[in-house]
Amino acid sequence: MENRTMQFILVLSGLSDLRSLQLPLFLVFLLVYLMTVTGNLLIVLLICTDSHLQTPMYFFLGTLACLDMGYSSVTIPRMLFDFPTQKRLISIQACITQIYFFVFFLISECFLLAVMSYDRYVAICRPLHYTQIMHWKTCVLLVLGMLIFSILYPVVHVLLLLKLNFCFSKPLQSFFCDLPQLLLVSCSDTFINVLLMFISAILVGGCIFALTFCPYIIILNTIMKMQSKAMRSKAFSTCSSHLTVVFIFYGTAFFSYFHPNSNDHSSLDKVASVFYTVLTPLVNPLIYSLRNEIMKISLKRALHDLNILREKTSSNKIYSARKNVATS
Question: Which of 28, 40, 78, 283 has the fewest CB atoms within 10 Å, counting from its CB?
């Protein structure tokens, strides 16, 4: 029988071991998290309250904002907790739970970016049939199907992880529980886990990647054939925001997961992880709001209505106070 020491607690390496950096890092990432939640929540509220934004494109954008809030909430709060304590201890059960939700939001976001590519394809290449193809029922079914698959997909990885034994080893070279890093600290045979991870990454990831980028080949071809310069500019504007988000997300994720394993890359891996787990959910609302005229108009309208409501409330308070003084 193999001599194994069961270890129910794992250690995360964190972003930095320097004590002097813990407080600045805590404040920076706390600010980033608050901005991420506020920005994405603002987008959801605008889409829900403004009738001009209740279209399939903004329905998907609102869904992306909800996923970004959940996606950042899986990793950042735990990281914020570890900065002041510096213990960075996490149980196996908590680690596997974090992996489940991380993979769920990761796959959901990948699928949603693919759905948004298809939406742009229909809007630009088949504009006359847009309302028939991108019907509300179709949009809801696409999102529902995406969520069902994203819920079931991580279950296979979790079930295989639960069969592994974990023994004393070096800390996980990450600030959160990531599937490849967790497999490295297992004292069981992880061949099946690694094989499943690579096969699913190639099949599922490859299909989603193709579904995301292939429509843009047709879209770019259609845009170049447009006679009107204004139409080309508008089409490029609506697509550029989405493409920017896709390149940031996929670029950092591919760098983190598809380069040769080496200890020399641990610092670069952490930087890449910060980009696709922390910064991407932050920049998504900024990219979509700053480059979208309709979103900016909606925000100005909401702020204007808020000021009017504030003025009415203030006037009512003054009127009530004067009335009370007069009656007394």
Answer: 28
Output the pLDDT for position 256. Answer: 65
- Per-residue exposure over 26-50, b if at least 16 CB sit within 10 Å of its own CB, e if not: beebeebbeebbebbebbbebbeeb
Residue 231: its pLDDT value, please?
77
pLDDT of residue 259: 57
- The pLDDT, as a whole number, for residue 144 is 96
User: Using an 8 Å Cβ cutoff, are 250 and 209 in contact?
Assistant: yes
Q: Which domains does the chain have, with CATH numbers?
A: 9-303 (1.20.1070.10)
Helices (H) and strands (E) in the chain, counts: 12, 2
Helix (H, G, I), strand (E, B) or coil at 11: strand
Per-residue CA distances from 240 to 219, 233, 291 (Å) = 12, 10, 9
Spatial CA neighbour of 121 closest among 204, 207, 217? 217
pLDDT at position 104: 96
Matching residue, tokens 């829900």 = 48
Give the tokens for residue 16. Answer: 């930095």
Amino acid in position 177: C
3-state secondary structure 128-173: HHHHHHCCHHHHHHHHHHHHHHHHHHHHHHHHHHCCCCECCCCCEC
How much is the pLDDT for 31? 95
Give every residue of the chain whose pLDDT is below 50, as ranges.
1-7, 262-264
| Nearest Cα residue to 34 out of 71, 72, 74, 66 | 72
- The pLDDT value recorded for residue 170 is 67
User: 165 burial class (0-12, 13-18, 19+ CB within 10 angstroms)?
Assistant: middle
Which of these, 18, 62, 129, 126, lies nearest to 284 by C-alpha position?
Answer: 62
SS3 assignment, position 176? coil
Cα 159–Cα 271–Cα 92 angle in degrees, nearest 5: 25
In the chain, the DSSP E strands lie at 9-11, 89-91
